[in-house]
Specification:
The chain is α+β, with helices and mostly antiparallel strands and 204 residues long. The chain has eight helices and four strands; from the N terminus they run βαβαββαααααα.
Length: 204
């Protein structure tokens, strides 16, 4: 298999990708990119013109956007069974990209103090913050996982957003959210990933 190179910063969404790499039992090389000039300069912006992490390079080609990287890895490592068979991916794609689209947009606007006017919901992909929260809470209250009877990359991505959102107040600490996050986040791969990223944050 060609080399996997993981560009990240331990204080970024790269933590989501690290968890995914550990779930896949992938062999990869980590490159830490500091915030500041290095992240906005060559050669890094040749990989991601947005000047942001995470970035995954495989066979010399870069994949950016966290949800895209997670989905790519699920396909690259089918033995990990982190994506359902293609003909059974309706819920998998739906909820993975619900988190990448409506959930992240609504939570980001919340963190910035932006309130969508009540009569402008049709103009926003997420409709309203309350609708996003209610929709996701109802979904994860009905079954242990969002895309079938076992853990997938969609659960990993959603749980990551819930953990961050509840920690920093952009998502409410609903019982449905807390129960789901606590259960999913205790996976050994997630604990390994946290240990690796936390080690990067310690002074040299």
């Amino acid at each position: 298999m060609p080399e996997l190179i993981f560009y990240t910063n331990p204080q970024s969404r790269g933590r989501i990708v690290r968890w995914m790499l550990e779930e896949c039992a992938a062999d990869y090389r980590t490159v830490v990119v500091p915030y500041g000039p290095e992240m906005k300069s060559e050669p890094f912006i040749s990989l991601n013109p947005m000047g942001k992490v995470p970035v995954l390079v495989y066979a010399g080609k870069a994949v950016t956007e966290t949800a895209a990287i997670v989905a790519f890895l699920a396909d690259l490592f089918p033995a990990a069974k982190l994506a359902p068979p293609p003909e059974q991916r309706q819920d998998y794609y739906r909820w993975l990209f619900f988190a990448a689209g409506p959930l992240e947009a609504a939570a980001t606007n919340k963190s910035l103090g932006f309130e969508l006017p009540a009569d402008k919901g049709a103009m926003a992909g997420y409709g309203s913050y309350d609708l996003v929260v209610e929709t996701l809470a109802k979904k994860i209250a009905r079954a242990p996982y969002v895309a079938g009877d076992h853990f997938t990359a969609a659960d990993l991505y959603i749980a990551s957003h819930l953990g961050f959102g509840m920690q920093f107040g952009t998502l409410p600490k609903l019982a449905e959210f807390s129960d789901y996050f606590e259960r999913v986040s205790k996976r050994p791969a997630r604990l390994r990933a946290d240990e690796l990223d936390n080690a990067l944050m310690k002074p040299a």
